[in-house]
Amino acid sequence: MVTVSPSERDERSQTNGERPLTDGGRSRPDGGRSGTTADLFTQVSEETVDETYTERVLRGLNSYVYAPIAVGWDDWRTKFGGLILLFYILLATVGPMITPEPTPFRHAIFLHPFHDGWFAVGSATIFGLSIPWPEFSAVLGSNTQGQSMEALLVYGSVPIMKMIVTGAVFSVFLGTFIGVFAGYKGGRIDGVLMTMTDVVLTIPGLALIVVLAALYQPESPYVVGLILGIDNWPGLARTVRSQVLSIREESYIEAHRALGLPTTNILRRDIISQLMPYISINFASGARNIIFESVGLYFIGILPYSNQNWGVLLNGAYANISLTNVNQLFYLFEPMIMITGLSVGLILFAQGLDKVFNVRLQARHQKRAQDSEDTEEAMDSELADGV
């Protein structure tokens, strides 16, 4: 039996064009097929793909803009609810710019909707030319002070939207933050946060709001929204915590922890993204509660009449009209229709967001958009080759 030393074996391998054995003879000549264990984990592809800035922007727009809009537009609830909310947003932002302020005794008292003379054709001067121009006068009627009802409804929507934005965003953010953080961290942090949540839950929410409103008499809609949002976050925090307790035990969460990913990334991408349908539903529910509570408090006179919102209109209608007179009921029903329409829009839009946050549907629309882009690129290249 002929014994070959490791050095001779390496020389023969080099003579045959093979890679020499290393690591004490434990490796084999790969001949382009195998190598050491370190080589297996350090080999990288020789082909590199350089993604331009434009491609990254387009990919981000496809993932975070096009796909959610396409998914939401396929659902009639998101479409219809979004159009309703868009109407109310434009009513509160653009409406005061094009609607005269509701000054007292500008119109006759108790004009019914679409009365005689609600529409007329006047004239307007544009670039020195006099052209016919439509003129509207108290289309939806007037109240006991001769104020136009459409002007009251338009200017009354502004404080309502401010209360919704402040109170609903505050309650949803606080409830989501406390629930997610307590459920994910656990231990003493969970105990402290849930004890604080239980203490707030035991306090009667409506009674607390009435007491705070009566003591401080807030005039700013933003302050009113914050007060009304106090009793909306504990229930959301409790429910979100129970969901996080089950999600944090998933295998991919454990894998991300083992890889050392930051806690903020895990909470934002892996946990909160799964809870977004439930959070959106609670946002709509919280906004509805703030609408009803604010209107109710203004109606019974707890909150000061610092602005003309829909609750103040209901109070004025209840105090100044006769419920047996059918011609005066529009004063009461028009604010109620506005409140109901906003509530329906919030509910429909929140229900439709369940599909918008569905990862599988978003991936399907992203793939569809990518396939269409690839098809267009292929057609352009064929045309270029033909030319």
Tell me the layout of helices and strands.
Elements (H helix, E strand, L loop, with lengths): L5 H10 L21 H6 L10 H22 L1 H18 L1 H4 L20 E8 L2 E8 L12 H37 L1 H16 L2 H12 L4 H8 L4 H15 L3 H8 L4 H38 L9 H11 L9 H27 L2 H28 L1
Antiparallel strand pairs: 1-2
Helix pairs in contact: 3-14, 3-15, 4-6, 4-14, 6-7, 6-9, 6-10, 6-12, 7-10, 10-12, 12-13, 12-14, 13-14
What can you see in these coordinates?
This protein has helices at 6-15, 37-42, 53-74, 76-93, 95-98, 149-185, 187-202, 205-216, 221-228, 233-247, 251-258, 263-300, 310-320, 330-356, 359-386; strands at residues 119-126, 129-136. It is mainly α and 387 residues long. It has a domain at 64-102 and 148-367: Orthogonal Bundle (MetI-like fold), CATH 1.10.3720. A two-stranded antiparallel ribbon has the order 1-2. The protein starts with 5 loop residues before the first helix and ends with a helix. Residues 21-34 have low confidence and may be disordered.
The gist of it:
The chain is mainly α.
- Main sheet: strand order: 1-2
Mean pLDDT, as a whole number? Answer: 78
How many beta-strand runs?
2
CATH class category of one domain:
Mainly Alpha
Low-confidence stretches: 21-34
Element-by-element helix/strand order: HHHHHEEHHHHHHHHHH
* Percent in helix: 55-70%
Level-2 CATH architecture of one domain = Orthogonal Bundle
Structural class: mainly alpha
What is the CA-based Rg, rounded?
33 Å
* Overall form: globular
Cα distance, first to last residue? 72 Å
CATH topology category name of one domain: MetI-like fold
Give the CATH H-level superfamily of one domain.
MetI-like
The number of helical segments is 15
Largest sheet: 2 strands, antiparallel
